[in-house]
Amino acid sequence: MKEKTFSRTHLLILGLLSILLIVVLPVANAHGYISNFQLNTWGKYLCYAMLAISVDLLWGYTGLLSLGQAMFFTLGGYMFGMHLMLMIGRLGSYQSDLPDFMVFSGLTTLPSFWQPFYSFSFSMLMVVLLPALVALAFGFLAFRARIKGVYFSILTQALTYSAALLFFRNELMMGGDNGFTGFRRLFGAEIRSPEVQRWLFVATGIALVATYVFCRWLTRSKFGLIQQAVRDIEARVLFSGYSAAAFKLFVFVLSAVIASIGGALYVAQVGSINPNAMTPDKSLEAVVWCAVGGRGTLVGPIIGAVSVNAAKSWATQAYPDLWLIMLGAIFVLVVLFMPRGLVGLPAQFAWAGRRINAFIQERRGRRPNSDDDGNDGGDDDSGGPGTSRQPPDPPTEASAMSDPVPADPPGDPANPHARGQTEPPLTPAAQPQPRRTSADPDPSTP
Amino acid sequence: MPSRFLIRTLLALTLACFTKQAGGQQGGHVIVGEPEPTELPQPGGMIQPPANAREVVIEALMSTDPAEQAALVRSLLGSGDPDAVGLLTAWREGYIYYHDDFEGDRFPVRFDGEADGVGRRNVVRLDNGEPVPGVGGQPMRATENQLELAFTDSRLRQAMRSVTDMAALVADNHNRRLAAVRGIALEQNPDKIEALELRLPLEPSRQIQREIEVAIAMSQLRLPEREIKLAACRELERLTPIPARDTLRSLAREAETDGDDELAAAATDALAAIERHITRVNAAGTVFRGLSSGSILLIAAIGLAITFGLMGVINMAHGELIAVGAYTAYIVQCVFQSGLRLSPFGYSVAIPGFNASEGWFQAYFLFAIPLSFLVAALVGLAIERTIIRHLYRRPLESLLATWGLSLVLQQLFRLVFGASNVQVESPVWLSGNWTVYGVMFGWNRVFVIGFALLIILVTYLFLNRTRFGLLVRAVVQNRQMAACMGVRTERVNMITFAFGSGLAGLAGAFLSQIGNVGPSLGQSYLIDSFMTVVVGGVGKLIGTVISAFSIGMADQSLQQILLNPVLGKILVLLAIILFLQFRPKGLFTTQNRSLEE
Amino acid sequence: MSRQPFILTAEGLNKSFAGFQAIRDLSFYLDIGELRTVIGPNGAGKSTFLDLITGRTRPDSGALMFEEKDDLLKLNEYQIQRLGIGRKFQTPTVYTRHTVYENLLLSLAGSRGLWSSLFHRTKPAEDERIDEILQVIKLSDRAYDRAGSLAHGQKQWLEIGMLLAQDAKLMLVDEPAAGMTDEETHRTGELLMSLAGPRTIVVIEHDMTFVRQISAGRKVTVLHQGGILCEGSIDRVQNDERVIEVYLGRKSRARAKPKAKPQANSHAA
Q: What is the DSSP string of A219-259?
């Protein structure tokens, strides 16, 4: 039957986790049970989780694999970073009002576009506004031209790449190669102090929970239904009268903002930002988190971001040379064998178990129906589209959600994988005997 | 145009041989020390080189009359004798001394060998190169202060410079002569006009003749006579040498202040002609660079045009396949030299080299080309069998899986070959350049253009003239139908992907000649390659060709206009995004119903 | 003398795909309230014609007007849908990963805007309408099953239901009977006939029993090689020399291979 956006158990678990994040961990840190370093590391992971959610909202729910999310993340970081750079004041090594890198490149007055960033609220406004505008402009052009599938990925990749090239230039007055670093103060307090870092962690926790709740609401609304319909069969959405481009644009802008907020919080906690964080590879890394955790769900990206990064922290210490090989290999394996990620594993095991069971029974009993192709749609009775409640699709069916050019026969925008024939027994009321052919069209024999 | 180039090249080659022979003859005389005066091969030479340049220099050294010294030195003018040049240079720079021996003979000497503890060195006679006997028959040793330095005055030095300049003018080596003439042109010394005018009719190379004319005209601008200046301006207007701009500008200003309108106008006209010439040269240079960077794009993207364009596989490891090709070229090079020692994962692997002779080493690249193709094709085959095979209908997933693979490969390169770039030397026949009317054509760039065309031809023939190509096109158009007709689509996919990968390897071999070879080599070409294929439109090779050259041209023109490569690149990317507004499926699309979604 | 405007006017339409002329100088006029059946052999351009009307493909030349005031060639798919033109595809095209209920909800007449979808709350009237349609298409008991799990015929019904939910002025129905039982086919015919009048309907069909059922006393259009071969009552059309010729050529082959429409079969199989 129809589900509510938040069931009672769901709310309970969500509430407990939120309290753990926002209250318990910071308090434990204040009392010394959790080291500052650990809290800081977790704060970083939570920022990554927001980036991963932004990837998933596009990829898992709308079928748009954006490789530009790292750019939005970094843009947010830069916008907040500008404020933090100005807050250094005369504490920099040149003891000038200007940020060190400007003094170094011979500037004597602050460039005019830096001026407003003295204001914290302006900087926050820009964290939201700049990525939103970039996403709006790019998305408008891309979706208007109906660029989708891998073309969209390639173009967003190029966008990120050119943005990185731009930010590497010193002339942009954004710090060039080195970007921003050496932050000192936030609201007049020492930014590296445990107290400030603790509050930043709380802010990140709140931001993440709010993002989760908002996205959950969004994906369960009628908007979410349309969004997922765009992912599955965009053409049908158009013929249902919805402007698919508008919906995609909205989601694109929204996830740019989510990524950007994550980036802003990240910069304050990590203490530096540079254009290297903007390269397409970073976007792809975020896609890995999402894929490992389980796309098309909202917990998946969070789990993925935290687990992959925890593994990264461990592996870069233990096996610095092999980390990239591991990451690459994990990714290949996940794509090939775990299309639903960690979140989908239990269901995947269950599915595999049923298959094995069926296989054993079949061998034992030689059921007449033994050539049933094991279509998973038959035992599918869940109503929630695109959520973790869905049963796993066997790997071949995962293509349905990402194949931008279904190889249909002409005149058919339908999902090529939609299977109509191998179905479970129908209820007696609706058990037609499908005719295998259309009637003879010959009008000469009335 | 090409035929004119060809004729010119042939001409230049013949002339070069001619001068080379002549030079050899001359050199032979010097070594053997024949007494007869040698003549330049060209009739009508006005300067007769002396019997033996060394004797003349020594005669000049022994003369006590500065005027005679200068005259003697000047008599060497036009001699290409490197010996004389060496001696005169040594004299001018103060390395020649006099020694009076016990018999009262005075002769010029120079020092030789290492200095000992008190700064004494061996003393050698300048005329016969034998050590000067000292006390007790031992070779004489002395410090610089113990001998009398051979002095030069300014007139003498002037003469010496003329001789050395002229010596350079008649050097055997074409490039040295060219450099000398250009140097003289920049000096704008009217004293050298004479030497230049003497050389002009003898100069075999058309190019250098022209440069000599330039040098003469530029030097004439410094003469006081108005008529000569005027004529020089006209001459420069015809020759349009870029270095003459500054002088012409100041001349125009001076003439204007002097009220000499005619001269001012002549100078301005010459300037205008030079500016026009610069514009043309820049345009030609941009076109050439555009062509060559388009070719590089094309070479890098052609493999992708096959795997992505035809098969629809997004291979993010394409860049790494390029790197595989480049590293293969590197290994081949090392094998031709002294071998290679690698230490991946703590193991030590030594690949022996056979220390090829210089000639053989020059040919290493010819071996590297097919090997690069083969190795990359094999790697591609392995990728196809293990990963891509499972993802044919899931382009986004193949993008992600191959990106994971590219990370693995990059790190493997780092572990095997080190994180820094490796050195791949270009064979001699790929280095050097060729200047036509001020436009410089690097050989490797010219070669890249030729190679790009060759690759296109090969790919075209493979796809359109072979049976296998027919199968590939059939599978591309309709996989199911091809399978129904009995085509082994799996095998076709496999071989097509390997072919595309091999082309990436070829690209790597070539890119190793014009850029750095390092673990992230492929990354720098990946995005450009993808953009090229996207703009070209999938499914048609001609689209990729046109798009590569258009992007290359646009890139180079923007660089020329903006004088800023990064900004140019960003603008090109933006232009591509805008272009896709109007043609979302690229330049060329295979228009049929089944492709329309 | 005032006449009622045509609901659909097509004049001189041409469309070719890589050299293949799918639509050739096609002119077509449809009165308000008509139930028009379009028949024709394979490749006659029937589905392509619907593609042109719904904005899925653009013609190379020609004019297409809706209610003689809206130029369909200037509009894109969703704008055309919003004018009140609904379409059922040849192979059932539903949101396979959404439930039957959600499929209908997404198709229900009403605002198609982004903001309204964000703050949409299902009104009782909407639920009632969906229940009504569910009963018509006999899928009430599967309302919360994923549409992908329906049988082919049920998907056909669902798509017809989506068309009903949309409340379109002009319904373009491409092969509604494929994959249905005889009884269901008959019921589809009844449904379509009951809808005609307030709505205008174009049906593309091969099933001649079905065509006879719904075209009694109505006009039938025969398409051949992208153009109109003949138009008129079903009896006139069936006795038309050219029509017989066009079909006879096919018939001799069709006898050898009983499947007259391999394309539809390959999907149904």
A: HHSHHHHHHHHHHH-HHHHHHTT--HHHHHHHHHHHHHHHH
How far apart CA B419 and CA B442 sit, in angstroms, is 29
Q: How far does the CA of residue B589 sit from the closest CA of chain C (Å)?
A: 10
pLDDT tens across B472-500, in order? Answer: 888 877 777 777 777 787 888 888 899 99
Q: How confident is the model at residue C261 (pLDDT cuts 50, 70, 90)?
A: very low
The interface predicted TM-score of the complex, written ipTM, equals 0.84
Specify whether the CB–CB gap between A388 and B578 falls below 8 A: no
Inspect the interface and report whether the beta carbons of C18 and B591 lie closer than 8 Å.
Answer: yes
* pLDDT score for A414: 38
Which two structure tokens, joined as six digits, stand for A368?
Answer: 């007449």
Task: Say if CB A261 and CB A49 are below 8 A apart.
Answer: no
C17 contact B CB<8A: yes
Q: How confident is the model at residue A215 (pLDDT cuts 50, 70, 90)?
A: very high
Give the residue from A272, A246, A219 showing the smallest Cα distance to A77: A272
Window 492-551 of B, Cβ < 8 Å to A: 527, 530-531, 534
Long-range contacts formed by A163-168: CB under 8 A, 24+ apart: A163/A71, A163/A75, A163/A278, A164/A71, A164/A275, A164/A276, A164/A278, A164/A279, A165/B566, A165/B569, A165/B570, A166/B566, A166/B570, A167/A74, A167/A78, A167/A275, A167/A278, A168/A275, A168/B566
Closest CA to A384 of C114, C119, C102, C92: C102
Classified as helix, coil or strand, A161 is helix
Domain ranges of chain B: 171-259, 281-589
- Domains (range + CATH), chain C: 6-94+168-268 (3.40.50.300)
pLDDT at position C213 over 80: yes
B304-313 confidence digits (pLDDT tens): 888 887 777 8
B484 touches chain A (CB under 8 A): no
Structural domain boundaries in chain A: 44-279
Residue C91 touches partner B, C-beta closer than 8 Å: no
The CA distance from B593 to the nearest CA of chain C, in Å, is 6
Interface test with C, best of A382, A393, A431, A435 (most C CBs within 10 A): A435
B413 close to A (CB below 8 A): no
Identify the chains in contact with A, defined as 3+ C-beta pairs within 8 A. B, C
